[in-house]
Design goal:
Layout lengths: L1 H10 L9 E4 L11 E4 L32 E2 L4 E2 L3 E3 L13 E3 L4 E6 L8 H12 L5 H8 L3 E4 L4 E6 L1 E4 L8 E2 L4 E5 L6 H4 L7 E7 L2 E2 L6 H11 L5
Antiparallel strand pairs: 1-2, 3-4, 5-13, 6-12, 7-8, 7-11, 8-9, 9-13, 10-12, 13-14
Helix pairs in contact: 1-3
């Protein structure tokens, strides 16, 4: 099955991961990585977090609530769990291979050095799974494309998705400093990367608290307030 190929490309030989774990990537020259498993923090930080910098230099939160966490995503019958940073609704230019910055210092727990782009065939199979209601975490992950995840000292994890590439020094287990370039904006994992290339170039950025995203289940106004607070420097 094509989805099985996507999952293998993204997760090695294990087709799924248990809840509450992060699948780590260890590049090995493309011969097939064996994923390592890192347990997520068992204690969640407070609902409100702060001290992050925006992952695009000079960037800001979009004005459109549909680009914020909690918005519906009909193409996969799901809910948006992060912030989409497009050039069309931002304070700074965002284009293909614009640098993606670490929002806070931390340790890299996932870096997709081994990644296969979606094809017409693999996208069609993913869409068939969606139509059948078989939306597993692996299917959702395939739609996020190439990713980097960073775990922070406060227990949060930030995810950076749809990447075009990763900075050479960034790998699983490496530490990154706040504001350090870790990756490059792309459109990997989006249906448009197959059907209409170049039209969905953006960064998908998440702040994860425990097993969920910041603002899960809350109204748009509250979610925006939480994210505005997140990008306020710690006192």
């Amino acid at each position: 099955m094509i989805v099985g190929a996507i999952v293998t490309a993204a997760f090695g030989s294990n087709a799924s991961s248990p809840a509450g774990v992060v699948i780590d990537w260890v590049p090995n020259g493309g011969t097939g990585a064996t994923p390592a498993v890192t347990q997520l923090p068992t204690t969640s930080p407070p609902m409100a977090v702060s001290g992050f910098v925006f992952p695009i230099e000079g960037g800001c939160l979009p004005e459109d609530d549909s680009l914020m966490p909690g918005a519906l995503r009909e193409y996969r019958n799901g809910t948006h769990e992060g912030v989409d940073v497009y050039d069309s609704d931002n304070c700074e230019f965002v284009g293909l291979e614009t640098e993606v910055l670490a929002a806070k210092s931390g340790t890299v727990v996932r870096a997709d050095w081994i990644y296969e782009d979606l094809t017409e065939v693999s996208l069609a199979e993913l869409e068939e799974f969606v139509q059948q209601g078989a939306i597993t975490p692996d299917v959702e992950d395939a739609f996020r494309g190439r990713q980097v995840w960073v775990e922070h000292a406060d227990g949060t994890v930030t995810r950076y998705a749809h990447l075009a590439g990763i900075v050479e020094a960034v790998d699983v287990g490496s530490t990154v400093s706040q504001g350090e370039a870790i990756a490059f904006v792309g459109e990997s994992g989006t249906p448009e990367s197959v059907n209409d290339p170049g039209t969905q170039v953006h960064l998908h950025f998440e702040i994860r608290i425990g097993d969920d995203y910041l603002g899960a289940g809350l109204d748009a106004e509250t979610v925006r307030s939480l994210y505005e607070a997140a990008f306020v420097a710690d006192q």
